[in-house]
Amino acid sequence: MALTDLRPECSFGPSCYRRNPHHFKEYKHHHLAQLLAKHPDLELPDKDIQVKQQLKIYSDIEHGFNSAVVAAPTPRDFLNRVVSDDVKDTKVKVANRDTPNKAMHMAANPNTTDSSKRPRSPSPSSSSETDNGSKRPNTGSDGPSSQKLSGIQAKLKAAAPFNYFLTKVRDCPSSHKALDSIYMTDLLHPSLGKLVSTLQINFMVELDWLTMNYEATKTDHLPLVILYGAESPDLASPNLASNIRAVRVKPKYPYGTHHTKMMVLLYDDGGVRVVVHTANLVPDDWENRTQGVWVSDKCAKLEEDGDTGESPTGFKSSLLRYLKFYEVSALQQFITAIQNSNMSHINTAFVSSVPNSHKDGAMCQWGHRAVSKLLRQNVPPSVSTWPVTVQCSSIGSLGQSPDMWLEHELGTSLSNTQSRSLTRAKVSLVYPSHSDVLASYDGPLGGGCLPYSKQTAAKQPWLVDHMNNWRAEASNRTRAMPHIKTYTRASKDNTQLAYFMLTSANLSKAAWGSVSKAGNSCLIMSYEAGVVWLPKFVTGEEVFKTVQFREREPGSDKFPLHYDLPLHKYEEGERPWLYDFLLS
After folding, report:
1. CA gyration radius for the chain?
2. Which of 22, 258, 483, 562 is the catalytic position?
3. Which of 367, 407, 437, 536 could lock 513 by a disulfide, CB 3.0 to 4.6 Å apart?
């Protein structure tokens, strides 16, 4: 079976300088095809090193395109498959969550007597009353309360109280209809409400693929605002569709990136939904990779009774602070909608980074210092001996020893508690080894989302001692390389979590910030965004009980962990995946 090459030609032509394998998978390059035909041995005596590197990557991609992946579905094929699954009404037996969630009420009213040991959250469509007679805020309609639900409605109901999902994996069929796995089109599905406008904040955006998702849900005519970081000729084109406004955000620091992955969805009834996730808006990121997604319930428009609509977690004010930092006029409609929405039921905290040298009180509003403050206020001292686990897809320059930043700064912030004394926890890192990537669904190309460089790794050989393999049988995703980024503290018997954070931020000073020697400022270079689940606000307990992601029962208050515990330490001689392998 021959596969027709439907990729568009790269608009930069011979001037293209990119060496990202994903770029060559998505675009044809006629000048490189001609070079490859003339020089199949890749010997280019008169060309500079950049062209030679490009040709090597291009050759590998073309070989895969024309042979190994001949039968692989195109991005549109995969989109059509998941849409055909999701547009069908799905009858799913979901545990009855009529017991109201008192955790948020108890957090906001600590003097209230708790008469139950196990407070739980109702489904997103519930409007049941709490024990003290107060009604849970009306979050707008996420669907009928009857048993017959659309696929995404059933998934949101089953995911409560965490609303935490992974994206579907193309080559993992069990993920396609799993209650805990979603695709881009799920988030735009009409059963969640009639959309009137959407905001996409991201790093890399492929406009054609993004448009396909909107077309599939018949929302491609609606106003769409895109904030993006990576260069995109399509988004910069003067011929952009009239309903799309695209703004490229360039951080002021050379090592900074606009790396946030987030959506804000506005509905015709004034409702708002926020999505925080880890995937670029490009097809590869939604196919054979492990990505995390948090989806808020729909937040109804505030009634005119003087209520601020703020959550005990401070989610609303933190989100507004982040969006206002951009000073982009196209965001005003979304800022206004959020200001007018009731977010009092949201049980996660919003944490973010923005580029600046933050001083004095602003230090604790952004980056790892903001997380430190959040944990200091809400995490009990009983977890003080638990290690911190970082799971990421990229690693920056961390210094010559763990004492320079990893454990001294980041580790100290991530291990903060309500205890008066600061502790520094041991930090473990989950990052794919070279052999992990080679065994992935996409082979070496699976490492295209893991840009840890040989040059950086050579400066910090000590980091290997902290590294653990990517093992994710807990979610059936060991072979789907992780672009997801998470941070947590697990008990020593691996049955409990002190908190869990999903974020766009990788393990780097640019993302999290670096405190000055004087201790009076914190330099952050990138835009990042994430959410933190704290037991106090979700279950009312001091810690989460945890369960394997695929084993979680619908509506359970056990937190679903996507990778395997105990961690699998690198074996002797094993090395981390280095992106340079794709350039060699």
Report:
1. 23
2. 483
3. 367
